[in-house]
Amino acid sequence: QVQLVESGGGLVQPGGSLRLSCAASGFTLDDDAIGWFRQAPGKEREGVSCISSSDGSTYADSVKGRFTISRDNAKNSVYLQMNSLKPEDTAVYYCAIATHCTGAPWGSWGQGTQVTVSS
To answer: How far, in Å, CA of 59 to CA of 73, rounded?
Structure first.
């Protein structure tokens, strides 16, 4: 069974950091693109970052320079390092897989991990 499980969320003060993990089971993610998305209360889900099978990465303008996506194929996991967090980063963060970062449907959504940035 293909499954993605997110972890690493929590409560952090503005300016703080968190590292989110997306662990895959039931398949190896070497040949897939993995995307991070987030959804804040009352807002639509938005794309945050994506890492392709060739380790190319993309970022939403709102997180460029603050977030870094990476993968560890040995651990079958993808990470999202989030620095200089802002209150507007508060959301539930999800990961999903696709064949490419753009133009392909996303699937196997995880259950999400809550990130709250507040003083």
So the answer is: 20
Say if residue 87's pLDDT is above 90.
Answer: yes
User: pLDDT per residue over 19-75, tens digit each?
Assistant: 999 999 988 888 899 999 999 999 999 999 999 999 999 999 999 999 999 999 999
Distance in angstroms (rounded) separating the CA atoms of residues 66 and 83: 5
Locate 79 and state its tokens.
């990470």
Residue closest to 29 by CA, chosen among 111, 114, 95: 95
Q: Around Cβ 21, how many Cβ atoms within 10 Å?
A: 17
Q: Please report the DSSP string for 5-69 in residue order.
A: EEE--EEE-TT--EEEEEEEESS-GGGSEEEEEEE-TTS--EEEEEE-TT--EEE-TTTTTTEEE
What confidence tens digit (pLDDT) does each residue in 99-112 have? 999 989 998 999 99
